[in-house]
Amino acid sequence: MNMNKVKILPPEIVAKIAAGEVVERPASVLKELVENSIDAHATSIEVTLKGAGKTLIQIKDNGTGIGKDDLAALFNRHATSKISTLDNLYEIMSLGFRGEALYSIGAISDITLRGKTKEQEHGWELHLRGNERLSQKPFPMATGTEIEVRELFFNTPARRKFLKSNSSEFNAMLDSVIPYTLLYPRIRFLLTHDEKKIIDLPETAHQLERIGNALHLEPRHMIEEKRGFEGMSVHLVLGDINIQRSRRDMQFIFVNNRPVQNKSISFHLNDMYRRLLSPGVHPFFCVFITIAASEVDVNVHPTKREVKIKNESQITLTLRHFSEELIMAKSKAKQFKKSIFSIPEQEQAPAPEGYSFQTENFAALKASLIHAQPAFSAGETGLSFESQPLSFKNENSLKEKLTQSHYIGNLMSKYLLFETNDSLLVVDQHAAHERINFERLKAQVEKGRIEIQRLLTPVLVKLSHQEIEGWEENKEVIEKMGFDCSLFDKETLAIHAHPRLISQPEKSIQNLLAGDSLDKLDMQTLARLACKSSVTSRYALKKEEAEYHRKQLLLCESPFTCPHGRPTVIEISDDTLEKEFLRK
Ligand SMILES: Nc1ncnc2c1ncn2[C@@H]1O[C@H](COP(=O)(O)OP(=O)(O)OP(=O)(O)O)[C@@H](O)[C@H]1O
Ligand SMILES: [Mg+2]
């Protein structure tokens, strides 16, 4: 009997394991190939995809090219032209450094590689399948590199099975390319998918222009500044409050020209914006950090996504202060888009103080922002009470109380106040409105009889590449929900009609397009998405309207939570008040 349990794995299996770490999905292949073209100083990168990269990923660049002899050497693990000693690992300024990517991709696909350096008269083509060389022959071409990856994961069926739908794989591919387009405005990027041109970005010297073009955002809604700090320089491009995303899909962090993820930086920037944007909407930002290469360790993750920064907490804090100062000092007044229906314009409440940023005075602005915080914040007022989750019994007694209560007024155009015998009921007008609309929309959708509001002039919504793709894919479901939309141009959707119950159709559409395929969702979830933040939040209701809201809310199946789980009504009992005033 053979007692040796430890075996050395054969090289083919080692290759597949390594490939599994670097190449998770088509998006990771594309990312590696784009990085290689950038490292080769290309000024033009053309990507052609078929079947979300499952069928074909092709890239053509006009960089330095790969010489005939190097072509063959490439498909050995750790073949790289970029570093040669270990010390270099910490001085890495190129995107690639491991000599692992092409080897890994080659192990699990059918790959054709063509390269020509400027010294060579013609190019060479190498064809491999599962890292087995099938042919090498001369090929006429201009200086540069062309790579075609077909049949990804053909020899690792388990991986192939785990690939998601074409739309989510394709979205991931876009997500992996877009950061590089922001980083390198001087490189021309072209990307087509199934014969459709998706990205077409001409070379430009202006980074803001590129960012605007690539993300379909208006440069006038961006604030930019560069500043040097001890041992670091930072370039910030921050969206002002006009850019509001329903997902965190437009937040980019770069360290030494490398797109990275960093939880701490991301947390602080989002946290800072929380004082400016309503809950549930997310800002746009790009942070470009340059620090000494010795201060970063890029070799911590197989796909190089995460970067460890030695002095992370200090750097994060510096960044937070810098961005706070920038956004407060330069942000422009929020341009409230008037809602097209439901509340007549003249009745709309003015924007609350603290939302208008005309002043240049940072300190005054900060102070006004603090006052714009919710009134019952425990820390500020010393008042603390708990709104307990509702049990069935409580729900019935609350229903009773709300039915019999008297309306006593509204607070800050946000809350409706009702008095009962022994308590104060505070209704969150926005949450209540969402609940009412959600239940009505759900009922209409289920019956297939949605009340439609036709628009005289369409509402135009700028969408990202991913959202446009999402719309194409989910058109039918969206139409079923009562929307009538068409593509206005390649980045703008025109809404011609929408469900009457929704007052902000553009938000609705963005919420619907924020996730994966809609056809997997039930009607209730769809209605919930469509309703989210789609009612006007601040508006001083008249007494009759407040009473009407109360009645409608009481008719709901679940009157005391909004469709997204927040309470619609809280009760502050006499008891709580007595305690707070130290009467008890
Ligand atoms: N588009 C290209 N143009 C010119 N040379 C290329 C190109 N793509 C790859 N190469 C050459 O092939 C080598 C191997 O590429 P590969 O991506 O496998 O490794 P790497 O970029 O050095 O490191 P990493 O694994 O971290 O990406 C590179 O070092 C480079 O010399
Ligand atoms: Mg590489």
Summarize the structure in words.
The chain is an alpha+beta fold. It folds into three domains: 11-201, Histidine kinase-like ATPase, C-terminal domain (Heat Shock Protein 90, 2-Layer Sandwich), CATH 3.30.565; 217-330, 2-Layer Sandwich (Ribosomal Protein S5, domain 2); 387-584, MutL, C-terminal domain, dimerisation subdomain (formyl-coa transferase, domain 3, 2-Layer Sandwich). 34% of the residues lie in helices and 23% in strands. The chain contains 18 helices and 22 strands. The chain has helices spanning 11-22, 26-39, 68-73, 101-107, 157-161, 166-183, 207-215, 263-273, 312-330, 362-371, 378-381, 392-404, 429-447, 465-480, 505-512, 523-531, 543-555, 574-580; strands at residues 44-50, 56-61, 110-116, 123-129, 132-139, 144-150, 188-193, 196-201, 222-229, 232-239, 251-255, 258-260, 285-291, 296-297, 308-309, 406-411, 415-419, 423-428, 452-462, 484-489, 492-499, 569-573. The protein has an eight-stranded mixed β-sheet. The chain has a five-stranded mixed β-sheet with strand order 9-10-13-11-12. Strands 16-17-18-22 form a four-stranded antiparallel β-sheet. The chain is elongated, with a radius of gyration of 28 Å. It starts with 10 loop residues before the first helix and ends with a helix. The model is unreliable at 86-90 and 332-390 (pLDDT under 50). The structure holds adenosine-5'-triphosphate and magnesium ion. The site of adenosine-5'-triphosphate has 23 residues, from helix 2 and helix 4.
